[in-house]
Amino acid sequence: MRNVLTIAGREIRSYFSSPVAYVLLAAFLALAGYFFFALVSAFDQSLRIYSMMRNPEMLQRFNLNEMVIRPLLQNMAVLLIFVIPAITMRMFPEEKTSGTYELLLTSPVRVSEIVFGKFLGGLGLVTLMIGLSGFFGLVLLGYGNPELPMMFTGFLGLYLMAVSFLAIGTLVSSFTDNVVVAYTGALFALLVLYTIGWLGETVQGPLGAVVKYASITDHFQELLKGLIDTKDLVYFATVLVVSLFLTQRSVESVRWR
Amino acid sequence: MIEVAHLYKRYGDVAAVEDVSFTASPGQILGFLGPNGAGKTTTMRVITGFIPATSGTVRVAGFDVFDQSADVRRRIGYLPENPPLYNDMLVVPYLRFAAKLRGMRRGDIDTAIDRVLTACSLGKVSGRLLGHLSKGFRQRVGLAQALIHDPEVLILDEPTNGLDPGQIDEMLQFIRSLSPNRTIVVSTHILAQVVSVCEKVVIISDGRIVVEDVLANLTRDQRLDEAYKRAISGGLARGAA
Mapped to the 3 state alphabet, what secondary structure does chain A carry? Predict the structure, then answer.
């Protein structure tokens, strides 16, 4: 565990001793903030229009959770598809090109410790990112009355999704020594994972069920609706464990005869 | 103690190293010589456990590099061809990181850092960013990292690479001062460096060992550069045949 923390600590420090962490946090939060502003304005405008029309039934149906929080979280999830590969792309390629990979792999450290340490370092940045975006939720709590549990499960869903993305990005980054390839590969994998559910609507039979289960969006949707189901949690845990296990195999493969 | 026996390393169809065998003993600096691309780095990478051999065995301090890799890695200090530095780190935190990776106890780390900073004359730059250091200092930080855990075996891949003549002299004297209770392998393609520090010479050419002898025997009735040229051209002739 000590080795894991050593490696994770170096990883986090490297995000913050370069502009990487600040640029990614700023870009993510600025865009998310813009989405938030746009959604709240739209909400406010329709609220005013329906008030003028004196239509209490419509007004009853107005819901911060559905009209602001859910689309905000969905849009942030799309942002993460682009932001998280930028976090993971340096993990292994930079070590390989700078020669520090030799230091890591010739030290008495297990490969699993290297992989988990790097993942944990990235997780620190991701946690901060999602944590800071919780500010939007606080603003709504301060000025409106969203349903707290539903908002909470929504953010939980976003976080689980981010963690899964991070694990997949870590895996892709272990395949290559080129940051552009690592970024593009992770972006591609995440986009496929995010959109594969579209096929679930049209493909029939057991294959359709598999596609639907594989789609990260469907599991995310459940959490956005405020439903915490073991099935969805198992899905996220599976993505995490399988990705990190494969990363460990991929890194260790340099030692295979 | 390092024992390399019948080591082969192939990359696909290309043989990088073929049937390499030699031994290095404690207290003895072994000069690993050969032209560029002869297989020096490959051999050293196998010894340190960074890459596996295709076949053959390597034992370091009595442990098999493949089967008891962790035991070997604990006992080796390795300076790769390019010093393995994180450019965004400061010198002292970097050395602390290296010490932790080597499993050193927290209480011993500060003393070890002071020791290698002095030994490698890094006092002046100890607060600098690694990315801002000159080639000579980078090489010395690389060496400091290899020495931090006071290893019994040192593998130095072209440690004098990129140093100016004064620094080369200093580096060689320093390596010499490390030798009494350690097994040290130093690779280079500069013969003068071998003469000034090494007791034993292994010459590799085209992936094969062409000479393994103590320096005194090798230079008894010829100069080292003559012996080297003869060995290398023999290797080339065989490679062509």
Answer: CHHHHHHHHHHHHHHHHCCHHHHHHHHHHHHHHHHHHHHHHHHHHHHHHHHHCCCHHHHHHCCHHHHHHHHHHHHHHHHHHHHHHHHHCCCCHHHHHHCHHHHHHCCCCCHHHHHHHHHHHHHHHHHHHHHHHHHHHHHHHHHCCCCHHHHHHHHHHHHHHHHHHHHHHHHHHHCCCCHHHHHHHHHHHHHHHHHCHHHHHHCCHHHHHHHHHHCHHHHHHHHHCCCCCHHHHHHHHHHHHHHHHHHHHHHHHHHCC
